[in-house]
Write a structure and sequence with these properties.
alpha+beta; disordered N terminus
């Protein structure tokens, strides 16, 4: 799959692409992992919840969040729907790029919010209840927390995120 940055892609189109084929061109190792990855399908309400949560960014961050939206939507859908730790690592690493983060530097624990829940049935996606604690870190970096909830068990998990804009304009998870 190739994403053309100049072409506008709707939110539902992005979520569909994330679910259908999460690997992007140029990431062969991740593409191999994605081919065997277990990725559940979000239901329409879960897809709408992602859009609503991303729309909650404060005015001071709206322009950056809008610019990072394609990467953020794919990243969030990956986190909420992937069902396997090793696949999660391979799929999510593409959002990190060359920066590497503590989350992926040799740590081999549960890599998805769902795997950190004791009673959630991994067959389905988590729901994004809200995105909160939006904050500016630097001119090219912002942070937020995602509250994921398992509809089947009622469990929730707060996932912390930083997003960084590279010199070439690419937005990556920091």
């Amino acid at each position: 799959m190739h994403l053309d940055r100049k072409r506008h892609i709707s939110s539902s189109g992005l979520i569909g692409m994330a679910v259908g084929m999460i690997a992007l061109a140029g990431f062969s190792a991740q593409a191999d992992a994605a081919a065997g990855a277990a990725l559940a399908q979000p239901n329409p309400a879960q897809s709408a919840a992602v859009d609503k949560a991303l729309g909650s960014a404060p005015t001071s961050l709206k322009a950056d969040v809008t610019a990072a939206l394609p990467a953020l939507q794919l990243y969030i859908v990956t986190l909420m729907c992937v069902q396997d730790d090793m696949a999660t690592r391979a799929l999510v690493e593409k959002f990190v790029g060359s920066r590497r983060t503590v989350m992926f530097n040799g740590w081999s624990g549960a890599m998805s919010p769902a795997k950190r829940m004791r009673h959630h049935d991994m067959v389905g996606c988590l729901t994004v209840t809200r995105i909160q604690n939006w904050r500016r870190i630097a001119a090219n970096e912002f942070a937020f927390d995602i509250l994921f909830t398992a509809d089947d068990s009622g469990e929730s998990y707060l996932w912390q995120n930083k997003v960084h804009k590279e010199p070439d304009g690419t937005w990556l998870i920091a």
